[in-house]
Amino acid sequence: MLLCLPFLIDLHYQNTQHYGYGLRILGPQQPGVVLLSQELIAALLACSLFCLFLISDRGPRHLPTINFDQLFASLYESYSESQENKLRCIVHYFQRICLQMPTRSVSFERKLLSLGHQPLQSCLSYPYADFWTKSTIPLCPFQVHSSGLIEDHAIGTLEVDFENKYLGGGALNRDCVQEEIRFMINPELIAGMLFLPSMADNESIEIVGVERFSDYTGYSSLFRFTGDYVDKRNVGSLGRRKTRILAMDALCSPRMKQYKLNYLLRYVNFWF
To answer: Which among 111, 121, 181, 251 is least surrounded, fewest beta carbons within 10 Å?
Structure first.
């Protein structure tokens, strides 16, 4: 896969140059889309596995960790079964794609609501309380489920990644909760960590088309890889699986402050 990377990069830019979907840094307050083939994602993740990406300028550019060195180091510095099982998910992903390379596409889109008086091109302005109190638009139909996992509910739903302003959170480090688990069972999500800097309060990231490769049980320290998972979701537009994940920066231990007006607006606007 690594040896194919130069060819895959050239092919990628040939196929995307006319549509504006090419691989690039989608910087803060810059809406845009990157569309990658699953084969190119596999090559990029192989670079991460072997820690080949330069990291000297990632901090100043507010980019998350992308190489796997910290994940490997955590096995020796403070061993836990959950960390070992995170790596088992990653190894299983590479085993699967070596047997049969997937041929679909995945898109990564930085979405934002403009904070200025004049919305940016292709962006809506940030709605404040006055907008919502005067709105007469009815809510769309919705269902409430008291049990089950986000990734196991109905096909076609928007699945939310509640976690960290840095896409992926601690997926390539020690953490192992909602976001990190999702990035292990759907490793193609990790590719977005390469080119998507941290999110502000008016931004979110939508990822469409990732394939799930692993099954699991447990949460946090009890997380365990339990074997292969065959993703049977249908394929939609642009050759993407019908899996839509919306990443947003959740408040840290908000308690009652989440009901203050500015925080309520923040969450309502994420969905807007």
So the answer is: 121
161 is catalytic: yes
Name the residue ranges covered by the structural domains of the chain.
Answer: 5-271
φ, ψ for residue 246 (rounded to 5)? -110, 115
Classified as helix, coil or strand, 50 is coil
Contact in structure between 196 and 231 (CB atoms under 8 Å): no
Active site residue 69: no
pLDDT tens digits, residue range 98-126?
999 999 999 999 998 887 655 555 567 88
Question: 35-84: per-residue pLDDT in tens?
Answer: 999 999 999 999 999 999 999 999 999 999 999 999 999 888 777 899 99
Contact 105, 38 (CB under 8 A): yes
Contacts of 101 (CB under 8 A, 6+ apart): 38, 39, 42
Helix (H) or strand (E) holding 36: strand 32-37
CA angle 226, 209, 249 (to 5 degrees): 80
